[in-house]
Specification:
single chain, alpha+beta, 3 domains, four-stranded antiparallel β-sheet, four-stranded mixed β-sheet, 23 helices, 13 strands, 47% helix, 8% strand
């Protein structure tokens, strides 16, 4: 019986033959076509009534339960917007949908009149589940650039991400050496031999251009382009256009208010599943309308992508935003702020155009359109700079200044021969602050270097919520950079500030080291050259102060000497992989890769970049040699 009720075609055949037999007993000859029409009229005319009474329950203190009263009033036609009459055929039009009578009457005809997204114009796929992201997934900057690529070891990985419609730079990479052999073997260990395909889904679509979205989000459906060369995740499913030229149209359609209204009626438990998205009806509309939707979607995407080229952690980063303007720093900051406002207004205008075109494509207008708009009115608007959503103009202004300085530091460290840049001059190398000044001069050709620094420091001295007030460039480098860098790089910093004192107190020794190059040889060089040169200079200066009878200077220099010597001892413990007490305790200075057997872990300081920043920075954090503790979460 359940099979009969579930099969609409079988149900129709049985009813048509029954109608013919019933009419024949009455002496009336009925053709199959006539009986079919009779079945259609009888079934299509049936309606179901639903009463929206939950809001009259009176749950708040002092409120009465008026559900019975409103039920009676609605029967008398005295209360509006309480009773909803829905044709029963509408439930069949949206097969398998959650019971949502308020939406059914509005959208059921769209399902009857239009083909679903799959298979009409696209296919929707669920992708890769690693079963252990901490082992197989990294932020893109954690691995060397030469290792990023679907054929290079670490493939760009579309796996959810922050809320952003139309465009996103994907921050993650997934270990894909030898066609994902490590992931496949790991899944076979968990689920049995040959079972890896249950987690490595849709392998034939990896690397193709498409669209992707986060399955779970509290802010609404948000789909964005996925460039070629990416692997997509189970938590970041993908849409592939059957005809590549349709991709922008599909992006615009799925990003529209109307599509979100429809999709919300199909989803359950707050999850935008593959089965929901593939059922979206695709409107049959003119080429001109499809072109208008596609053009608006492409324009929004391109504007967001162009802005993102100023974002240091973006895969498309070129240079900070202020370097794209002219004039003094204050003028550049005002110009960038104006550009952001103008382009954000432009993408919101384009989004409005896109929404109107999609409503028209579906034939939705008037009261129905207003109802849909009201239902999705809380949708977040389009933001050009989503990372700074909700921030004030002053906060954005300061962010631009800090991004500029961060970029200058990045250029200094990336260009350094050994990836070790000291703060102090005692090592014989040019200290960090002087190198940063030289970089700023190169970035602002023709500007007076001293005046430029005055302008930067004047900005740093401002009181802005969320930003440390700094009195000088040296102050910012010593006390603000590393914490900011760790935040910008999402708790996976790659420029590590090693210092003899944590916090914001002055330190006798400090250096920035490039994580990608800070191997066992660089650790040895840091101690043998940089730290010990500082120790020797402090010992010599303390001796000279003692001979000269400068007691206060001698005491101060001796304290600094002991401070740097203590740092050297801590670095030695890390270098040797010393440990005592419980694994991972305060006296364990080994690299403890969780997924490796103890014998397979590094012996001493020999980091494997594939293990990621969080694993490799941990011994330094436990030893207290980082300027800011807990930088990697």
């Amino acid at each position: 019986m359940k099979a009969i009720l579930a099969d609409a075609d079988l149900r129709r055949k049985l009813m048509v033959s029954t109608i013919q037999a019933t009419q024949a007993r009455e002496g009336i000859e009925t053709s199959p076509a006539q009986a079919d029409r009779a079945y259609y009229v009888v079934t299509e005319a049936e309606r179901a009534a639903f009463f929206e009474l939950e809001r009259f329950k009176g749950g708040k203190k002092g409120e009465q339960d008026k559900r019975h009263e409103m039920f009676v009033r609605s029967l008398r036609d005295e209360a509006h917007h309480v009773r909803h009459d829905v044709a029963r055929r509408d439930f069949a039009a949206i097969d398998g949908t959650p019971l949502n009578y308020q939406r059914l009457g509005l959208v059921a005809h769209l399902f009857r009149e239009n083909a679903p997204l799959e298979p009409s114009v696209a296919e929707v796929r669920q992708g890769l589940s690693t079963a252990d992201d901490s082992r197989f997934v990294r932020f893109r900057w954690e691995v060397p650039v030469c290792s990023v690529g679907i054929d290079s070891g670490w493939a760009p990985f579309a796996k959810g991400g922050d809320f952003s419609r139309f465009y996103q730079s994907f921050d993650l990479v997934v270990l894909w050496k030898d066609d994902g052999d490590a992931i496949k073997r790991f899944n076979e260990q968990l689920y049995g031999e040959g079972s890896w395909s249950r987690q490595v889904r849709s392998r034939d679509r990896y690397g193709l251009e498409g669209l992707t979205w986060p399955r779970r989000t509290q802010r609404g459906f948000n789909i964005r382009k996925m460039p070629p060369g990416h692997i997509f995740a189970d938590k970041g499913p993908a849409v592939f256009a059957k005809t590549p030229a349709d991709l922008d149209f599909i992006l615009g359609l799925l990003s529209s208010e109307c599509a979100e209204f429809i999709l919300r009626g199909l989803m359950s438990f707050g999850s935008w599943e593959v089965g929901v998205v593939k059922r979206l009806p695709v409107p049959s509309c003119s080429k001109e309308r499809r072109r208008a939707v596609a053009q608006a979607a492409r324009a929004i995407h391109d504007l967001k992508a162009a802005w993102d080229s100023g974002n240091e952690v973006s895969g498309s980063f070129e240079r900070p935003w202020v370097l794209g303007a002219d004039g003094a720093l204050a003028e550049r900051l005002e110009d960038v702020s104006r550009r952001e406002s103008e382009e954000e207004e432009r993408i919101r205008t384009l989004a409005n155009v896109l929404n109107e075109e999609v409503y028209s494509a579906y034939g939705v207008r008037g009261e129905v359109m207003r109802t849909m708009k009201d239902a999705v009115s809380e949708r977040p608007p389009e933001f050009l700079w989503p990372q700074m959503e909700g921030k004030t103009t002053e906060q954005k202004r300061m962010e631009h200044v800090w991004r500029l300085l961060s970029y200058a530091v990045k250029r200094v460290i990336d260009a350094d021969d050994d990836g070790i840049v000291p703060f102090n001059r005692s090592t014989g190398e040019t200290p960090l602050a002087e190198r940063v000044r030289a970089e700023l001069a190169a970035l602002f050709p023709g500007r007076d270097e001293s005046q430029l620094e005055v302008e930067i420091v004047n900005e740093l001295k401002r009181s802005v919520k969320g930003y440390r007030k700094c009195a000088s460039l040296e102050d910012w480098l010593a006390n603000a950079f590393f914490e900011y860098h760790a935040s910008l790089y999402k708790s996976r910093p790659i420029y590590w500030h090693i210092a003899s004192v944590q916090g914001t107190a002055p330190f006798a020794f400090g250096a920035l080291v490039h994580y990608h190059r800070f191997d066992k040889n660089r650790m040895a060089k840091l101690r043998a050259s940089y730290v010990r040169d500082t120790i020797e200079e402090l010992r010599r200066d303390a001796g000279l102060a003692d001979k000269a009878g400068r007691a206060d200077d001698r005491v101060e220099l001796q304290a600094k000497l002991e401070e740097v010597q203590a740092l050297d001892k801590k670095l030695q413990l890390i270098q040797e992989g010393h440990h005592e007490g419980p694994e991972g305790g305060d006296r364990d200075f080994r690299i403890l890769t969780p997924w490796k057997e103890p014998a397979a872990r590094p012996h001493g300081w020999a980091p494997d970049l594939d293990d990621g920043v969080k694993v490799n920075i941990a011994p330094l954090d436990r030893a207290g040699v980082l300027r800011v503790s807990g930088a990697a979460g």
